[in-house]
Amino acid sequence: TSGHSYEKYNNWDTIVAWTADIAAQNPDLVSRSVIGETYEGRPIYLLKLGKSGSNKKAIFLDCGFHAREWISPAFCQWFVKEAVENYGKDTAVTTLLDKLDFYVLPVVNIDGYVYTWTNDRMWRKTRSKNAGSICIGTDPNRNLDAGWCTIGASKSPCSATYCGSAPESEKETKALADFIRGHLSTIKAYLTIHSYSQLLLFPYSYTYDLPKNYQELNSIAKAASKELASLYNTKYTYGPGAETIYPAAGGSDDWAYDQGIKYSFTFELRDTGRYGFLLPESQIKPTCEETLLAVKYIANYVLEHLY
Amino acid sequence: QDLAFDRQKVFRVIPQNDKQVETLNFLASIMEVDFWQPDSVTLVKPKMQVDFRVEAEKSFDVEGLLKESGIEYQVLIDNLQAALDAQFDSKVR
């Protein structure tokens, strides 16, 4: 795709063209579909990666929940590139794509992402209008039906953590939830990519209660954090969201977990605040390389523990 | 968005007690403060690392208030516009 680079931040039009190209250039491995449209009418693209096969289980990976977290969509693009480039060359990648499908949602909050390129680099929420308020947008990661708006979220449309008028009030979160609900028999893991802080979180955030398979999730997160540190010694903290950072209801990882997807994680990528949301492009490659190792670890674990 | 963030700063504080958390709440209520972490001032607890962005014309007052309150702080990003420009490896897009 002209102008697209895996080691630069790409604007939405470039990402759209890239989704079309990557699917057209790898018809045996990648297909593109639309799972809905955003508040401002943009198609929400989903890529499906994997060798065609019957009754395959899947992992769902999304990026771009919060508009200003630009390293997140960069990782989803990197992940797809690595998958198609290494299929047939790297045994582990080939096995993963032969035995699992990966649903990759390159940018969830597209309207917000576009707005960070055109108007306000620091924008976080969606761009939907809130009835009775001049304030725009909902925090998509407070808008899922998981303890919705009970804790760590705001009922004020002007707040950065506004939970929305109702669960899944946002077209973007409803499209994501509808798709996952429609594929619960195959989706066995949910990974959502955010930044920053270098955290690997798992349920719950809407309560201090621990998930049923806490020990398992904690040991997966511990091992994945080792992978994250293995290349550049990038230190990650891991644990259940509520006690590791703070309680926050309406998050997608909690929601996916309560749908029965027992491997559900939130990544908060680099860095720890030196640049924050403005991570330089020079760090895209190392950040994506280390994150890919952790995602591959989790994917292999899921493959060996299908349920 | 050229220069939209010129001279804006990002501060880091670690409130030591409830009183300092209260001061941050007050700060957030009188100033346009964009919390980077945690997501919102309502989530701030003592000993938590708190990063927030302040607009140029308010950062002097914010520093004064933090000093006055005895809250130790660090300036993570001294000029947000410079950091924003630096995120791109080259100006050529």
Describe it:
The complex is a heterodimer of chains A (307) and B (93). Chain A has 9 helices and 8 strands. Chain A has 307 residues and is α/β, with parallel strands linked by helices. In chain A, helix 2 crosses helix 9 (284-304) and helix 6 runs antiparallel to helix 9 (284-304). With 93 residues, chain B is an alpha+beta fold. Chain B is 37% helix and 22% strand. Chain B has 3 helices and 4 strands, in the order βαββαβα. A 4-stranded antiparallel beta sheet of chain B has the order 2-3-1-4. Chains A and B meet through loops of A and strand 2 and helix 3 of B.
In what range is the share of β-strand residues of chain B? 15-25%
**Quaternary structure:** heterodimer
* Shape call of chain A: globular
Major sheet of chain B, described briefly?
Answer: 4 strands, antiparallel
Helix content of chain A: 25-40%
Number of strands of chain A: 8
Mind describing the biggest β-sheet of chain A?
8 strands, mixed
Task: Give helix % range of chain B.
Answer: 25-40%
Terminal-residue CA separation of chain B: 14 Å
Beta-sheet strand percentage of chain A?
15-25%
User: What is the number of E strands of chain B?
Assistant: 4
Radius of gyration of chain B: 14 Å
Shape of chain B: elongated
Low-confidence region ranges of chain A: none
For the largest interface in this structure, which chains are involved and how many residues does each contribute?
A-B, 31 and 29 residues
Strand order of the largest sheet of chain A: 1-2-4-3-5-8-6-7
Strand arrangement in the largest pleated sheet of chain B? 2-3-1-4
Structural class of chain B: alpha+beta
Q: Calculate the mean pLDDT score of chain A and round it.
A: 97
Low-confidence stretches of chain B: none
Q: List SSEs of chain A in N-to-C order.
A: HEEEHHEHHEEHEHHEH
